From TrEMBL:
InterPro entries: AB_hydrolase_fold. This is Integral membrane protein. It comes from Streptomyces mooreae. Residues 746-758 have a biased composition (Gly residues). Residues 759-770 have a biased composition (Basic and acidic residues). The keyword Heme does not apply. Keywords: Membrane, Transmembrane, Transmembrane helix. Residues 733-791 are annotated as: Disordered. The chain crosses the membrane at residues 86-106, 149-166, 215-233, 245-269, 289-308, 320-345, 365-385, 414-435, 477-499.
Length: 791
C-alpha cells in the first residue's frame, strides 16, 4: 500500500509498527528532495487481530465479546446521570452470569453426563475402554461416585484456567500501553466534565480494571465447579441419614462457597472504569487472593466429595440441573432491568432520530449474547450426550442415560422458530432491495455524461448495489426482531421445561398429532442446529489456525467487536485499540514535537475510527497541527448510531471544532461507510460526496471496458480523493519541518523521525498505508491510519 515493495520499519515491533518506503526513511534529513511532495508512512496493526494461530480460539469467545459491546452501547445521557452507574453494573453482572454458564456447561459435560450418568451405568460405560476404571462393575477405587466427580472436575477447571491464562497473556500485551507524556504548556486544559470520554487520559488504559474482572470471573468459574460438587455431596450425605461429620463439614464448605461468591459479586459491583487518568494502582490483597481462595475451597470440596461413602451410587441426573433454568431466568431479568435503565437514560439524552433502536441497542445485544451462550452450551451438551449413549435419544425410556437437562432440549426446540423469523426479515429485506433498486434505476443514467449510452443491465446492477448497501441502515430492524422473538421464545422454553419436566416431544404426547409431530420435529431439528453451530465454530477455528488468510478474515470480522476495551468481560477477545491508539498518539505527538511538523491523518473504514480515537487523545496544540481525512468511514453510520455516548453528534462535532480540518468521502454503493452528517457553526464542511461509483457508466474512448463498481474500496481511484487531500495539505502550510536540537526534545520523542500513519485496504486486509494515507505540502509528512473493514 506504500506503492513500493521496499519498505523499512521506522519505529515499533513485530506486533505493530510504522513503516516507510526505503527511499523515504530519512526524509527529514533531505528536505530539498521533498519540496511539494508528501512523505507517506504506514502504521501496520494486523498482528494485533490476526497475527498468530491462537487468534482462531477467539471464535469461542463470541458471547463474551457481544456482552462487552453492550456496555458501550448505552445512550448518550449526561455522564453524571445516576442511571449510568446502574447500567454499567447490570452489564457487568450479566457478563458474570455468562462465565457461570460456561463453567456450568463444562460441568454438565464432564461431571453430569460423563462421570455421573455414563460412568455409573453399565450399558453406557460398556465398550468405552477409557471409562473402564470408573465403572462401578469393577469395584475399583475410582468407581465411587464422589471420586468419579472429583476426578472429572479437573476438566472444567482446565477450561477456566485456560481462559484465565489467555486473558492474562493478552492483558500484558494490549491493556498495558501507556499514553504519551505531555509537554508543559500543551496539556489538556479542558475540564474533564466537558471532554468526551474518548479524549480522557485513562480511556485506553484498562490494565487494573481487566485484572480485577479477571480475578472475579476466575473465582466465579471455580466456585461454580465447587457448587456442583457440593450439590452431589449434599445428596449423598442426605442419603446416608443422620448428622454425620461429613454432613457438618459439608455445610461449612457450603457456607465458604457462599461467602466467596458474595465477595466476588462485591468486586464486580465495585469495579467501574476510571477513565480520567490511567489507573496504575495495584489491586487490594483481597482481590488478588480471591482466585487462590476459591481454588483452596475447591480443593477441600474435592477431598470432601471423594471421601468414602459406603452404599452411595449415582442414578438419574446430577443434582443441580435446574440451575440452567435459574441462570436463564436471572439473565432475562437482568436484560429487562437493563432495558428499563436504558430507557431512563435515553430520555435524558439529546434528541437524535438516528440512534439505533432508540437507545435499546445495549439491552438487545446483551440478550443476544445470552442466547448465543445458551446455544453454544446446549449444543455441546446435546452432541456429547448423543455420542455417549450411542445414538439413542437422551431422556427417552430406552435411552441408557437421562441426558442433559430438559431445558436444553426446550431451548433447542425454539431455534427453528427463531430462524423462521430471521428468514422472514431477510426475505422482506430482499424485497426492499428489489423495490428500492427499481426506483433508483431511473436516476442512475442522469448521474453520468449523456454521451455514454444507457445500458439497462448495468443500470440495474448499479441500482441493486446502491439498494443493497442501504440495508446497513436497516440492521436495527433485524436486531430488534431477533431480540424480541428470542426473549419470548426463551421465556416459553423455561416455562415449558419447568412445567412439564420433560423434553418437548414427550411433553406433547397427549396433544393432537399435529402438535406432537411439530414438537418432535422442532426438538430434533433444533438439537442438530445447536450442534451444527458449535461444529461450525470449531471448524472455522481449526481452519483459521492453519490458514493465515482465513485467520485474517476472522480478524476483519473482529474489528468492531474488539475495538472497545474489556469493560464488562475479561475473557472477551482483547481490545487491539488499547495498543493501537496509544501507538498512533505517541507517533503523532513525538513527531510533531520533534520536527514542529504538520500531519494529514488518513483512515479508511475501521482505520478511520482508530484515527478519530487517536486524534481525541492528542493535546490541543498537537491536535491543531493535524488534519483528518476519512473515507469509507463507519464513524456515524455504525458507531454513531450504535454507540451514541461516544460517537454521537455532540462528540463528532466537538472533534471537528478542535481539529485543523476534517474531510470525509463516501458513496451510495458503500455498505459500510457513510456521511458524518454534521452541521457545524463555523461553516466548514466535512462530507465530500456522494462520490460517483462507478466512475464511468458506459464504454468510451477513455474507458473502453466497463468501469468497476468500487463500493467500499479503492477510494484513492476517485479524482475527488486527490483534490481533497491536496486541499488539506495546502491548509497545513508550505514549509518543511526541520529537526529540533536534541536538547529541545523533552516530550519523550521517538528516536526515528515519523511522518504519519497508514492503514489498511480491504483488498488485502492488511494494515498499511495506501496512497491516501499521506499528504503534506512541500514535504510535510502526512499521517495515515486506516483499518480493516468494519463489516
Amino acid at each position: 500500500m506504500l506503492g513500493d515493495p521496499r519498505v523499512q520499519l521506522i519505529t515499533g515491533d513485530d506486533t505493530a509498527a510504522c513503516y516507510r518506503r526505503t527511499d523515504d526513511a530519512d526524509a527529514e534529513r533531505r528536505p530539498d528532495d521533498y519540496r511539494g511532495e508528501p512523505v507517506r508512512e504506514a502504521y501496520c496493526w494486523s498482528n494485533l487481530t490476526s497475527g498468530n494461530g491462537a487468534r482462531a480460539l477467539w471464535l469461542l469467545l463470541v458471547p463474551f465479546m457481544v456482552a462487552n459491546l453492550a456496555h458501550w452501547m448505552r445512550p448518550a445521557a449526561p455522564s453524571e446521570h445516576p442511571a449510568q452507574r446502574l447500567y454499567d453494573l447490570l452489564v457487568r453482572i450479566l457478563a458474570l452470569t455468562l462465565t457461570v454458564l460456561l463453567a456450568a456447561a463444562a460441568c454438565e459435560v464432564a461431571l453430569d453426563l460423563t462421570a455421573w450418568q455414563c460412568a455409573g451405568t453399565t450399558v453406557c460405560a460398556a465398550g468405552k475402554s477409557w471409562m473402564g476404571f470408573l465403572s462401578p462393575d469393577n469395584s475399583g477405587w475410582w468407581s465411587a461416585p464422589g471420586r468419579r466427580l472429583a476426578l472429572a472436575s479437573m476438566v472444567p477447571l482446565l477450561v477456566i484456567g485456560f481462559l484465565w491464562w489467555l486473558s492474562r497473556r493478552t492483558w500484558s500485551a494490549y491493556e498495558s500501553a501507556s499514553p504519551p507524556p505531555r509537554r508543559p504548556g500543551t496539556s489538556r486544559d479542558t475540564p474533564v466534565a466537558e471532554r468526551t470520554a474518548l479524549s480522557l487520559d485513562g480511556f485506553w488504559y484498562g490494565r487494573r480494571l481487566v485484572a480485577r474482572l479477571r480475578a472475579a470471573h476466575t473465582t466465579a468459574g471455580v466456585l461454580t465447579i465447587a457448587a456442583v460438587l457440593r450439590a452431589a455431596g449434599a445428596q449423598a450425605d442426605g442419603q446416608a441419614g443422620g448428622d454425620t461429620a461429613l454432613a457438618v463439614t459439608g455445610r461449612a464448605l457450603t457456607a465458604l462457597v457462599i461467602l466467596l461468591a458474595a465477595a466476588t459479586v462485591v468486586v464486580v459491583w465495585r469495579t467501574a472504569r476510571s477513565e480520567a487518568v490511567p489507573d496504575d494502582e495495584s489491586d487490594h490483597l483481597v482481590v488478588r487472593a480471591l482466585p487462590f481462595a476459591s481454588l483452596g475451597a475447591l480443593a477441600l470440596i474435592v477431598v470432601h466429595t471423594g471421601w468414602a461413602r459406603p452404599g452411595s451410587h449415582s442414578h438419574g441426573a446430577l443434582p443441580g440441573a435446574a440451575a440452567f433454568g435459574g441462570i436463564a431466568v436471572f439473565q432475562g431479568l437482568l436484560v429487562l432491568a437493563l432495558a428499563l435503565t436504558a430507557w431512563v437514560l435515553q430520555r435524558s439524552a439529546p434528541e437524535d432520530a438516528r440512534t439505533a433502536l432508540r437507545g435499546m441497542g445495549g439491552p438487545a445485544v446483551a440478550l443476544l449474547a445470552c442466547a448465543v451462550g445458551g446455544v453454544l452450551s446446549g449444543g455441546v451438551a446435546q452432541r456429547f450426550a448423543d455420542w455417549l449413549d450411542g445414538g439413542a435419544t437422551p431422556g427417552q425410556d430406552h435411552a441408557p442415560i437421562p441426558g442433559p437437562p430438559v431445558l436444553l432440549s426446550w431451548q433447542a426446540s425454539v431455534i427453528p422458530v427463531l430462524l423462521v423469523v430471521v428468514a422472514i426479515v431477510i426475505v422482506l429485506a430482499a424485497v426492499r432491495v428489489v423495490v428500492v433498486g427499481g426506483r433508483v434505476a431511473k436516476d442512475v443514467p442522469g448521474l453520468y455524461d449523456p454521451r455514454e449510452h444507457p445500458d439497462e443491465r448495468r443500470t440495474k446492477r448499479i441500482a441493486g448495489t446502491i439498494a443493497g448497501a442501504g440495508l446497513t441502515d436497516s440492521a436495527p430492524v433485524l436486531v430488534a426482531a431477533t431480540a424480541a422473538v428470542t426473549l419470548v421464545l426463551g421465556a416459553g422454553a423455561v416455562a415449558g421445561a419447568w412445567l412439564s419436566d420433560r423434553a418437548p416431544g414427550r411433553a406433547t404426547e397427549g396433544a393432537p398429532p399435529v402438535v406432537h409431530a411439530a414438537a418432535e420435529t422442532a426438538e430434533s431439528l433444533g438439537s442438530w442446529l445447536m450442534s451444527a453451530g458449535v461444529i461450525l465454530l470449531i471448524t472455522m477455528g481449526r481452519r483459521a489456525y492453519r490458514d493465515h488468510s482465513a485467520r485474517r478474515t476472522i480478524g476483519i470480522l473482529w474489528d468492531v467487536g474488539t475495538f472497545w476495551p474489556r469493560a464488562a468481560h475479561p475473557f472477551a477477545p482483547p481490545c487491539y485499540a488499547e495498543r493501537a491508539v496509544p501507538d498512533l498518539t505517541w507517533r503523532m505527538a513525538t513527531w510533531t514535537e520533534r520536527f514542529d511538523g504538520r500531519l494529514v491523518l488518513s483512515g479508511h473504514s475501521q482505520g478511520s475510527v482508530l484515527a478519530a480515537a487517536a486524534v481525541w487523545q492528542l493535546d490541543p496544540v498537537t491536535r491543531s497541527r493535524v488534519a483528518l481525512l476519512t473515507y469509507g468511514s463507519p464513524l456515524e453510520r455504525l458507531y454513531g448510531r450504535w454507540f451514541p455516548a461516544f460517537f454521537g453528534p455532540p462528540a463528532l462535532t466537538g472533534l471537528h471544532r478542535q481539529m485543523d480540518d476534517w474531510r470525509n468521502l463516501w458513496r451510495f454503493t458503500d455498505p459500510i461507510g457513510g456521511p458524518i452528517r454534521l452541521t457545524c457553526d463555523d461553516g466548514r464542511r466535512i462530507d465530500e460526496g456522494p462520490l460517483r461509483d462507478p466512475l464511468a457508466f458506459g464504454r468510451s474512448l477513455q474507458n473502453p471496458l466497463p468501469a468497476q463498481i468500487l463500493g467500499h474500496g479503492d477510494y484513492q481511484a476517485d479524482p475527488v480523493f486527490g483534490r481533497v487531500r491536496a486541499e488539506l495539505i495546502a491548509r497545513l502550510g508550505p514549509d518543511l519541518p526541520g529537526q529540533r536540537p536534541a536538547d529541545d526534545c523533552t516530550g519523550g520523542g521517538s528516536a526515528d523521525a515519523g511522518t504519519g500513519r497508514g492503514g489498511t485496504d480491504d483488498r488485502t486486509g492488511r494494515h498499511a498505508a495506501d496512497d491516501s494515507t499521506d499528504g503534506s505540502a512541500d514535504g510535510r509528512p502526512a499521517q495515515g491510519s486506516s483499518g480493516r473493514s468494519s463489516g
